[in-house]
Amino acid sequence: MKTKGGEFSDFYWQDGYGAFSVNPSQVDAVVDYIANQHEHHQRKTFQDEYRAFLKKYRVEYDERFLWD
Q: Which InterPro entries match (predicted)?
């Protein structure tokens, strides 16, 4: 990230992180999701949604290391 420009000079990752790609055909859906995530997470917590995402894509994880 720091190689992407001066505005990222203070960028740093937290101790743990995930990075995901998005199919270009789904960019608009992702933008809409981000714009409405506050409302969305009133119905389903981020933690529950993230666990479902990991399960859907068969990503192995250890619950002890998901949350700070």
A: Transposase_17_sf
